[in-house]
Amino acid sequence: MRSQLQNLLAGQSLFLVGGGKMGMALLDGWLGAGLTPSRFFVQEPTPSEALKNSGVTLNPDAQDLAEKAPAITILAIKPQFIETVLPQLGLPKGSLVVSLMAGVPLATLGHMLGENLACIRTMPNTPAAIGKGMTGLFADAKTTPQQRDAAEALLQAVGQTVWLDTEAEIDAVTAISGSGPAYVFHMAEAMAAAGEQLGLPAAMARQLAEQTLIGAAAMLEQTDTSSAQLRQNVTSPGGTTQAALDVLMAENGLTPLLQRATKAAATRAVELAEIGIGPKKN
User: Fold this and answer.
1) pLDDT digits (tens, 9 = 90+) for 202-237
2) Is the terminal CB of the chain with fewer CB neighbours within 10 Å at N or C?
3) Which CATH superfamily does the domain covering 180-270 fall into?
């Protein structure tokens, strides 16, 4: 994977717009995958110490960008900032834009950046920082096969990827994998709190909860067995696990709760699509 990434990006520079949590997660992953800091320009008005010390070129001026002409620009800013940030970028004609912004459709990117740019919408997640990311991608019609390959290699350097058939599927990806790590972290919090309620010391309850999730995730990764089968394998009829699952799998249990939660996330992604183009609605 490293050699493929190096070959696809040979001699090219990259422009990362936004050095917040997601931008830094991806940058850390790319640097860890062997891309050199000298390849990167990063625009971030309030850079962290880690970003300042990363070796990338911070906040390049127009001349820097014109001389290097980055082949790929990665947009890792909050959707609410597109009106102030995107029109000022002045990207070179024919370059590829890879957007990480939830709820910002390709039509909006074309309107604000110019129709002569190829654009790919993506939705990665923060485990990309440790090479365990999950990213959905959708490309517009102007994107060449070589640009698709380059974008895929960038995201595969920090995890797994899937290509989507329609742009609308990005909202579902946002709700499941984009926001998903937060659900898992909250599950760890909830399990630890339940352990405390049962009388365990706080530190022990946290250790038990977190390592249980880590171990279960490793089993999912290291076996071809489905999650449903793994669940059945550890559930003895009439036992303690079954007693808990009777609650979690009840009609008002975990599945409908997650369906409501992810629907709320997908709905918010659709709402964000209305930001940044045309007159504001009342």
Assistant:
1) 999 999 999 999 999 999 999 999 999 999 999 999
2) C
3) ProC C-terminal domain-like (1.10.3730.10)
